[in-house]
């Protein structure tokens, strides 16, 4: 296994046990907890100018990733623009709003960052098959990166996953299993198949230690694009919290390395129809309760039972951020407002970040000289049908 110089191995977020990455591949062998890649930051030998001068996607941050550019399974995902949204800034009453436009990734969502790293790990471990259950975008990204690496992929999607996601899993040559119901039903089918196929390598959220690690690079780029100024707020459409946990880790790493100061306030934006993180935050709890009847149009964040909630809630509290939930109606209206006022095509799921930011502005959480970053986690094109139906329901 070929790893980078500063990469130490994997550490369990629950029991603190450490493992060599060539031995532990997924959850903690001792307690079943989530494993997190660790580094010797003193051995990270690179300047921020050197990082910024490189081209070629997220693996230019290789000193802070487990695997380097020479072994990466990559399509140059990342290097997405941070686009100013001046009209939004005016409406929110803040100095600047930026949209980190992750729709510009190879398969149209930020899931590419996590899957690029997780599929790289799969190759390093000698896997031939990869598998996961997904609401849609992660499955599409997994099929794409598996194709690039020459692996077979097995993707379990709920029947309500979008047409684009299903079609593209097929186009990439993945084996697709459509499961009646929602993400949890797809998850059960995936687990049964994993039991029958012990050699399959899991690319499942927080089962592989590498998806949050890949999504970390979103924050590295944001910091760099803001000329190494830490933004005041980052608002993130939150389902399993993979990106949020990753970005919080990245912010602390950059602060430790002296590249930036402090961390932004991280805000988890959810949909009212499935808001286990927002509810747990509001009630001051350290862990969520599973949401009983998830019901939102935002498939990408309809995660009723996010297993990493203690870690997410800790990131929200430690960063002085929080959580917010808005209705599907407000979320879809935000998609349209941003498209009409800024020209930017936000995914419907992602607009939870925009409508969440509106809500936070109304609650006076922002100051007038603040910089706010919204994550557009996927391209609006993927949700054209939903956004269009919303207009039609208004007679437009
Ligand atoms: C997966 C997904 C999310 C949620 O990501 P997490 O990091 O698991 O919270 C948000 N938006 C879109 C478009 C997604 O596909
Ligand atoms: Zn453990």
UniProtKB/TrEMBL annotation:
Q: Which InterPro entries match?
A: Ser/Thr_Dehydratase (IPR050147), Thr_synthase-like (IPR004450), TrpB-like_PALP (IPR001926), TrpB-like_PALP_sf (IPR036052)
Plastid: present as a keyword of the record? Answer: no
Keyword Cell membrane attributed = no
Which residues does this entry mark as bearing N6-(pyridoxal phosphate)lysine? 111
The record's Pfam families line, in alphabetical order, gives: PALP
Belongs to which family? Belongs to the threonine synthase family.
**Boundaries of every Tryptophan synthase beta chain-like PALP domain copy:** 73-377
Q: Which organism is it from?
A: Salinirubellus salinus
Q: Name one GO biological process term.
A: threonine biosynthetic process
What taxonomic ancestry is recorded? Archaea, Methanobacteriati, Methanobacteriota, Stenosarchaea group, Halobacteria
GO molecular function annotation: L-serine ammonia-lyase activity; threonine deaminase activity; threonine synthase activity
What is the name of this protein? Threonine synthase
Per the record, the coiled-coil ranges are none
Q: Which UniProt keywords apply?
A: Lyase, Pyridoxal phosphate
Q: What is its EC number?
A: 4.2.3.1
